[in-house]
Amino acid sequence: MGYHELFHYASLLSKAGRLAAYNSYYCSLQISGLHYAYFLQSSNIIAVCTARHETHELATTYLLLQKANGLAINTVRFEAHALKTLLDFLTLWDLDLRDGDLLVILQAYTDYLRLIRHNWRPRSVLEWSVLSQVPLKEHTSSDSCCEDSGDLGGLSKTDGRERAPGAIEKFLYVSVKYLRFLQTRTERYAGLSFQQLPVRQKRIWGVISGTAGSRTVPVVDLRAITGERGVRSRWNKIDNLPSDAVFSLDQANLFFQYTPGAQNKLLFATLRYLGLREAEAAGITIDPETLPPSFFRMKYFQAKQWLRNHLRGDLKYVHLHSKGRWVFSVIDRGNPDYRASHKRAGERREVPWIFSADDLEDLLINALRERTELIQHQPKDHGFLFVSSDHRRRGAPITGQTVYKKYHAIAKRARKGNPESVLHRYSPHTFRHFYATYLLKVLKRPIDEVSLWLGHSTTEITAKFYAHWMSDKEEEGQFTVARMKQVINQSLDGRTPHG
After folding, report:
1. CA atoms within 13 A on the CB side of 400
2. For residue 461, is pLDDT > 70?
3. CB neighbours of 296 closer than 8 A, spacing ≥ 6?
4. Of the candidates 236, 202, 197, which has an alpha carbon nearest to the alpha carbon of residue 106?
5. Is the per-residue pLDDT at 162 higher than 60?
6. Cα separation of 422 and 490, whole Å?
7. Residue 361: which of 326, 388, 387, 386 has the closest Cα?
8. Taking Cα atoms as reference points, which of 245, 224, 218 lies closest to residue 236?
9. Cβ atoms 207, 264 nearer than 8 A
């Protein structure tokens, strides 16, 4: 085996299929022991040894450096165990770090951490050196261990012994530290490239931050690596597809087919065609004083013209020369909903509706009519566009969490009506990914413009999430440009947008 074979396994798109393939490979191996971490408590001597009881010089040197830098001995012991696990993984695949993409290697290592036993401790560390098989989790040693089990997309939902997401991130953190050590402290690995790894900006506070302020530094985004492998983060306990998954044509059509009510149709249209976050859509307001009682008695085209000329609030029709366009103002009003709030306090941005104005106005008229009926249950009109239809809160403003619940209620209806539906494995945020990929891939909009409309603080954030959609190369099995055009050009009532 080697990097070429590892890459083949890592490229399998199905999480269940990938884990099953890995499991089959590890089960087939006959090994002559694994690495072990040796610790002499009386003198705090620590080392990583091979199965042949030879000191692994590079790993041990790294640990001694951490110890010399003042790292707590218990933390050094944990890092020794994490390095032992990484070295096992590299040995099982006969990998040379210089020959492969570090991102692929770390992703495959993440899957390895999910499959091996983590609650088994030998009576002596020397027992690691006499193992004849890879210590996989008990029920992953069978051929059926990794059959698709629904939302988890991999191991059985009843598996309470899977390594916690936070623990996997800690193992990866130690691995990245070790790789950095190899790159900067050894001649052999000086050419290691970290450019393939996803990065994020981390804010650093120093002793003079009160005077000089904080600074940001780029760090490897471990959660992006584990999330792509389907590991559920402790910060997001909802079982989703990977964050960059995009609706297919059939999935998008199916969702709106089962979406009841004019308010819901407009609500999810704002997510789909404006790329809003859940709480941002829930926070859209109108000025009810600009809607006269006679509005709903107007003729169709008269009502649409009235909206364009008189409706005020967070949405307005802007006349541009011979044409016009609806523009939505996205404003942070301090929504307390923790699940889907604004990412930046006090945020305010404007997002144009660049698709059919006629389709939007059709949805808006019907949604306003439904809103008028519901708002009568409130003591006064609060001005929020989207209101609750729940009998206990009828007419009250919704929250981002309400949007999330509405989405999964619709997904449940779709699954009941169509057992093959997979909408329950997505989330409302998927509409945002679709919006971004369409603008970049199909409309070829500049990334700074897309970043502005999405509300990202920097274009680097946009590039990190969507750079893979900016290439003209279409990967086999991926969502093609033609199908993306089909989805975005499907209006909610079946007509093709034209504006």
Report:
1. 21
2. yes
3. 303, 368, 369, 372
4. 197
5. yes
6. 20
7. 326
8. 224
9. no
* Tokens encoding 21: 């393939």
Q: What angle do CA 192, 98, 24 make, to 5 degrees?
A: 125
% residues pLDDT > 90 (the chain) = 42
The single-letter DSSP state of residue 396 is P
Task: Assign 3-class secondary structure to 241-298.
Answer: CCCCCCCCHHHHHHHHHCCCCHHHHHHHHHHHHHCCCHHHHHCCEECHHHCCHHHHHC
Residues shown for the chain:
499
- Structure token pair of residue 17: 């299929």
| SS3 assignment, position 230 | coil
CB 212 within 8 A of CB 223: no
Sorted by sequence, the CB contacts under 8 Å of residue 421 that are 6+ apart come out as 251, 254, 411, 414, 415
Tokens of 134: 């890879």
- Classify residue 141 as exposed, middle or buried by CB count within 10 Å of its CB (0-12, 13-18, 19+): middle
- 277 with 429: CB under 8 angstroms? yes
pLDDT digits (tens, 9 = 90+) for 399-434: 887 898 899 999 999 999 998 888 888 888 889 988
Q: How does 368-388 read in b/e, with b if 16+ C-beta sit within 10 Å?
A: bebbbebbeeeeebeebbbbb
Can you tell me the distance from the alpha carbon of 435 to that of 457, in angstroms, rounded to the nearest whole number? 18
